[in-house]
């Protein structure tokens, strides 16, 4: 319905059904519901869903199918490795990529009927020539059967078919992305991002960043910002990012993994975060930064990416933070370090000279310093007398509510209070008992 209305030249807004249902005040009938949706659209009560333009949607159809074919080819390659393991061919233990030039030549020779390990090992090319003896041991075809060869031939044919389709899709995608070559070039300059990744990102979020006011909106829409659910001061759930666009997530994951292997700001950030959090969380944080960079580049056509360098964080961090990080690194190695600045700050009082590097097993830990507690203040109704003398009867002033009362009246009043409380509630509570007892004690003290 949205595309039909859009084709007629109407400016439409698309809302998420769950957000519309959660908004209070929704009527039950369809007619009133339509009027209510028109009102919330006029008021701007709900943010509309992101729908890319038609040319981006056509590009997205090709890029998503290319990723699907790439995943199918990868799955078929993994089945080939499993088939070789079943035939006791340990080729993957010697060759990192069995579908490279050397590995593919050996597999085709096996399909052609070659079973001699020496001849199969001689098909190695380049650096693989240094592993001839290991290849001869791994290419023992004693347990290889005709069924294995038949299935292997079909798997290699399926891999070639997927490769051909991926090449056709790539050629078609290059034609569709001609208007966006400038934006793709901007994204390609980011570490970890290639042409294919840039094409996938453009196909998912488009080139117009006005639909996302800030980079935080884009990151939140892509679900690459961890959600921390708290209830009563405790974290609930796994604090995951949620389910977003899986095609965009796949592209960001590839870019993050590629950036971690570089000597750049993004690579240094991942390595710094990976020391104190799991690998997946560090990758999400790196992808968050990459997506923020994408938003900045696509928002300004004249912008270009300049890497801040791997030492940017250390330059921005203060001297104390850097010292603390180095101390923690030494503590992880099993040392206890105390330091003293070479040029002490005159604003602070200089402490004792401590510049010794020792092993924690050789010295005992110092006693921890405790913060002194504030002096305790006694409450009024627990305050005791400072002297043993009794208070005279004249101490009852004119403004006191006890003026003119005798000790017997005061005691009777306290006892009557306790009896009335017990008769009204059916029982005397512990608080009533303590309150009446304090009154009786106070009266006895006043009256001597």
How would you describe this protein?
- The radius of gyration is 39 Å and the shape is extended.
- Mean pLDDT is 79; it is low at 350-367, 378-400 and 417-431.
- The strands form 2 sheets. The protein has a two-stranded antiparallel ribbon with strand order 1-2. A two-stranded antiparallel sheet has the order 3-4.
- Helix content is 54%, strand content 3%.
- The protein has 5 domains: 2-43, no CATH class; 67-175, no CATH class; 178-227 and 239-312, no CATH class; 318-343 and 353-358, no CATH class; 396-447.
- By secondary structure, it is mainly alpha-helical.
Key traits:
5 domains; two-stranded antiparallel ribbon; 448 residues; mainly alpha; single chain
Q: Short summary of the structure?
A:
This protein is mainly alpha-helical and 448 residues long.
Topology:
Blueprint: H1 2-7, H2 17-22, H3 30-43, H4 54-86, H5 101-112, H6 117-121, H7 132-138, H8 146-176, H9 181-188, H10 195-205, H11 215-221, E1 229-231, E2 234-236, H12 246-260, H13 265-273, H14 279-299, H15 312-316, H16 319-332, E3 336-338, E4 356-358, H17 407-425, H18 430-447
Helix pairs in contact: 4-8, 4-10, 5-8, 9-10, 10-12, 11-14, 12-14, 13-14, 17-18
Distance between the termini: 93 Å
Mean pLDDT: 79
Protein structure class: mainly alpha
With strands numbered from the N-terminus, the spatial order across the biggest sheet is 1-2
Q: What is the CA-based Rg, rounded?
A: 39 Å
**What's the total number of strands?**
4
* β-strand amount: under 5%
Quaternary state reads single chain
- Helix count equals 18
